[in-house]
What does this fold into?
Amino acid sequence: MRIVLLVIILLPIIHSCKPKAKSQPKEQSFSRIHKDGSWGYIDNNGDTLIPLDKYEFLNPIDAEGMILAHSSGKSGYINIHQDTLIDFIYEHLGVFSNGLAPAKKNGKWGFLDRTGNIIISHKFDNESYFYKCGLASAKVNGKWGFIDRSGNTVVPIIYDGARYTKIDSLVCLRMGQKWAFFSCNGQQLTDFQYDSLTGGLHNQHNYTYFKNGPCLVSIEGKFGYIDENFEPILPFGKFEKYNAFDGSKRAIVKTSSKFGLIDREGQFILMPKYDTIESFPYPLGRYKLRFGGLYGILDATADQILPLTYRSITPNYFKNDSVTIGTLILKDDNGKFGVTDHNGTPLIPMTYDSIDKFQEVNGESYGIVRRDGKYGVIDSKNRAVIPIENDFIYSDRWMEYLIVEKQGSFGLYTKGGKEILPPQYDYLRPCYYDKNNRFIAGQYGKLGLISKEGKTIIPFEYDYISNWVEYGPNEHFVVKDGKHGLIDRDGKTTVPPEYDQIIYNNPTLIKVERDGRFGTIDRKNNIIHPIKYEKMYWEWPYITGRPLDTIFVKYNGVYFATDTQANIIDMEISEKFIEEKFRYLSN
It folds into this structure.
């Protein structure tokens, strides 16, 4: 599996008063790496600082150079040199907020400082953080309140629910089914009268009740907006549908089955005449409108960015030289596709019959396009990296590669256009469990399993190889000459293809059929129940939530029950019982 670089954290360098050599780097960067359930770090030279296979998880480096880590089922903190800063003795740790991190030990939560000292003892039932208000929610015996950084109770722990945001200077408590607002010093600010409180997206990371403007609430089933003095700005129930105010201090509302846009005083910025209005989270303050089946874009002041002339508008992004810009994939009234930036400036002309969303690879963006029935790939500057001459190109967001079909043959390419496997297969699709390294492939009418290098893992001799089976095993189901078997992901045959049917929906037994009779085998193909029964039923563990324990079989017209070792445990099972219990199943 390819090691994926997930995030880059830049740490400041302390500058001395001495002049620096010209070759000395200004900053050092560290990147997390992840493979097969373990995490590590490398530096910007590619040197390993924290190796894989040691930590089950590593968080990004925080502002104080500390890394939240999981090892051997426990949580602690280390630095980039692997010095242990907080011992691995906790069931779980959170990140630091206002100098304290939540820590779980013996099933209870408390708080630690950055030296690992226990500041607030482990006595709470919930994980929480200290945000703008300087308070953390606290749950004890099913009741909620708030505490300060010293562990003092600021809001008594007597309420049925608690909510707060990172950026609002207030908190919310629920008594029964009603909510009320409280100040950061624990003063109750409103009655318990609100059925719901809805926060709006303030920026890329934070939600808010009031920073965007009035808060969306409901009272006795009617929605409305209240200002920071908890006074309504409009009569409750005026609109059919409400959205919370966004970071542009606008809210989408619906009345008379049409959508409009209001400001924080409740005045219309856009009159309610549109079939839909959708907000763009990034950048905030852009709205996609639909009217008469066509779409356009307006900003928060109702200025036109794109006219209402497009059949579809899809948000996307381009990444060029590691700089990301927001983009819009457009389909015009003639059915042609192109791309603009979020300000409507053309980037790719409206000349394509389709454009898929662009995906970033190594700092650049590539998109699959179609023209005159043929497929290719272009970069963000509209340069063809795979010529538009292919019958089809397959990919998805989890794949690093493209499967390209041309004249009935399939090959594998990078999204940047480099050939990995030439078009030599009758069929090619990624394995769901390892989409970048393993592929189900076909040659001469038979299927096999290959690596991305073209190495054969399962030979090309099967009529069918399963890719993904709900509630199924790790193995591939295979069919050869009409017979069913199982092959593991490394190509080892665990159950030879010798059965007419295989049903595998639990880790204990595999149900098999041969010549119209049923039995069971284990994962090593040892027969547990002889293949002689006319019928065989069991309850699916994923439905019951418990391990398989009873198998009902029919022999010589009579039902009886066995355990998982084929021992008879009940000789008297009525057919009516079987019909009622398993009416949702069939052989």
